[in-house]
Design brief:
The protein is α+β, with helices and mostly antiparallel strands and 276 residues long. Helices cover 27% and strands 27% of the residues. Strand 5 and strand 6 form a beta hairpin. The longest helix is centred in the last third of the chain and has 16 residues. The radius of gyration is 18 Å and the shape is globular.
């Protein structure tokens, strides 16, 4: 096998609606996922034994777990060496680990049955990234509806130097009484599907670009609200938190219109939504 390069795109939660806690302890969610051009890089080659190498991550990263899961499922491909180069900030709410795992699972497409189940067992965001296209996500992330392409947008990401515990954000959301009723979630899902299937730009529907976890994250990290304000002040058509944070994103009509905020935010990343 000649060395093969794979891309593992980051994902952006254009919106995220929080529902009640389920019997399994997870919350019902509705979200519109959009893949980004920003992506981790995986170089795959045959080796004497399976090995996942990444300088930034421990050996037990999700990519390594995905490869081990494929072996348990009976994948008989010769042993692989996977060199993972991180481009997506770690623990940033951009789905980097899930993207890496999904890219590894794609190696066994059409060779292993039940990839979606394997993906769900690895993590809530992994199923949606098996096929990195705009997607309407429901349940706790395990129900994925692939959508058609959305108009491209420029994206400015501002990761936070400190991570933010997803569990803490959800606990704070519960404390603040943020979860919506199931009937409200269903109506929002209907509206999202209607808008997305029409192919209109998300910027044409600002009332739907809501992250219910944002107040909880800001309650834990008030400085995130200042970053959102700074992006809006710089000309972003919309700015919000992605997922449970702590990354803040700004949306622009095009990548060319994104201002240089590197002096104010040294960790800022300029990218764009990926074409389907």
């Amino acid at each position: 096998m000649r060395a093969t390069g794979l891309a593992a795109p980051a994902k952006l939660n254009l919106c995220l609606y929080l529902g009640p806690r389920r019997k399994d302890g997870l919350h019902e969610l509705r979200s519109l996922f959009q893949p980004l051009v920003l992506a981790d890089e995986l170089e795959v080659s045959e080796a004497g034994e399976d090995e996942v190498v990444c300088e930034e991550l421990a050996r037990s990263n999700l990519a390594a777990q995905a490869l081990a899961a494929l072996r348990r499922a009976g994948w008989r491909h010769p042993p692989l060496r996977i060199e993972l180069r991180k481009r997506i900030p770690i623990a940033a709410g951009l789905g980097g680990g899930s993207a890496d795992a999904a890219a590894v699972l794609r190696l066994a497409s059409c060779e292993v049955d039940g990839l979606e189940q394997i993906a769900a067992e690895l993590g809530a965001d992994v199923p949606s990234q098996l096929e990195p296209v705009p997607s309407l996500v429901a349940g706790a992330g395990e129900r994925v509806e692939r959508l058609g392409p959305l108009p491209p947008l420029g994206v400015l990401l501002v990761p936070h130097e400190e991570g933010l515990s997803t569990a803490e954000v959800y606990r704070e959301a519960e404390r603040l009484g943020l979860p919506r009723a199931p009937s409200e979630l269903q109506e929002l899902e209907r509206r999202l599907r209607e808008v997305a299937t029409a192919g209109s730009s998300p910027l044409e529907h600002p009332d739907l670009l809501i992250n219910d976890l944002q107040p909880a994250a800001i309650s834990l990290r008030p400085e995130l609200d200042e970053v959102i304000g700074a992006l809006l002040g710089s000309g972003a058509a919309h700015a919000a938190l992605t997922g449970s944070g702590p990354t803040v994103f700004g949306l622009f009509p095009g990548e060319d219109g994104i201002p240089d905020l590197g002096e104010q935010f040294p960790s800022a990343i300029v990218t764009s939504t990926a074409e389907s």
